[in-house]
Amino acid sequence: MKARARTAATTLALAAAAAAAVAWAVLGVGRQDRAAQARKDAAERIFAFSPADVREVEVRSDRGTVAAARAGSGWTILRPVPGEADAGAVDLLVERLAGLRHRGEAASAAEATGQLSRFGLDHPFVTLTAKLRDGRVETLLVGRTDGFDDSHYARADGGPVVLISPSDRHLLDRSAEELQAKPAPQAGPR
After folding, report:
1. 69 phi and psi, to 5 degrees?
2. Is there a smaller number of Cβ atoms within 10 Å at the N or the C end of the chain?
């Protein structure tokens, strides 16, 4: 093999080794970034269940109480008046509840226990209860607004008091009318 060919082969081998090292480093950093993001997402989530785990959901607020349960591939209203549910509306509520993330912690569980009135959690604006497939019952209390950024105080099952966004509070506060199936439009005379 001539010197020029050996130099070219050596250069190509070194370039390939360098590219492999760079690719290995990038993939390693990418895996670490994904793992760190997954840990951050898990830490921000208020609940650890998925929407598919929810068998029944209840919303209590000053607008009344409404409860819906899975019925086949859809939902049915249990309370206040049994009937057909708007499956899309109930699915959206359940997805929002299961994926709910907090903006930060306002008080630890121990600090909050004797001070629920401080956060408006002694008489919450909204109480959501989810009955899960495995028999567990998860409850979220949504209290008063934080004066700093209009976040709402919330607490799940005796845990810490956290802050949730105003839009989350409004999306979770559903009335019976919003979750009931809408009657099909009647065809008018021709």
Report:
1. -130, 150
2. C
13 and 66 assigned to the same domain: no
The count of residues in the chain is: 190
Q: Is residue 186 part of a domain?
A: no
pLDDT digits (tens, 9 = 90+) for 130-184: 999 999 999 999 988 887 778 889 999 888 999 988 887 778 888 888 888 887 6
pLDDT band at residue 60 using 50, 70 and 90 as cut-offs: very high
**Residues 69, 162 within the same domain:** yes
Q: What angle (nearest 5°) sits at the alpha carbon of residue 55, between those of residues 157 and 88?
A: 105
Residue at 106: amino acid letter:
A
Cα torsion 112, 102, 143, 146 to 10°: value is 90
Structural domain of residue 15, as residue ranges? 1-44
Residue 115, C-beta contacts closer than 8 angstroms, at least 6 positions apart:
107
Cα 42 to Cα 49: distance, rounded to the nearest angstrom: 11
Cβ contact 162:104 at 8 Å:
yes
- Percent of the chain as helix, strand, coil, to the nearest 5: 40, 30, 30
* Measured distance CA(57)–CA(111) in Å, rounded: 29
| pTM for the model | 0.73
Measured CA to CA in angstroms, residue 21 lies from 34, 54, 59, 176 at distances of 20, 46, 55, 59
